[in-house]
Structure prediction request, 162 residues.
Amino acid sequence: MTTEKERFITARNFIATDIQREIRLARDETSLLRSLMRRSLGRPPGGGNFLAALGLLCYTEFAGHLRLNDFSIGSARRAFEMFFRELGPAYDALLKNHDIYGDLRCGLAHEYFVKKSCRIGMLSFRPQCGVQWDGQHYLFTVEAYWLDFQNAFGKLGRDLYP
Prediction:
């Protein structure tokens, strides 16, 4: 029989494998030679920015459901926003002025498009918040979000399964 802690660890490992693979593919593509070779073969650069962003936003909601111990449909926004705040103070501040759940999470998951202008990049080149608003666009950086998510998800595991 699988324990809740074992299920958590399995989910954590699947999440890490998926996101880290996409970041690794994007890093590989930063090599000019690799990039030129892939393009000459008709293959676009690696790293699924859209899919990685969508996955991270869905994983954020999942983590919130774990924190609440409530998986009901009616708790989706509350679960997402609770865990989004746990990613750090910059995320909490962003929620005060923006509907991140509606614009990003639901936009990508249900309508294929973010509800406001958004740029999704894979790699962060300096410490930054994974989601930002520049006054006109959301800026979603997969790698930065992943680092913050990974820290918060690790804390969640320690809190739930000491």
In short: Residues 4-28 form the longest helix (25 residues).
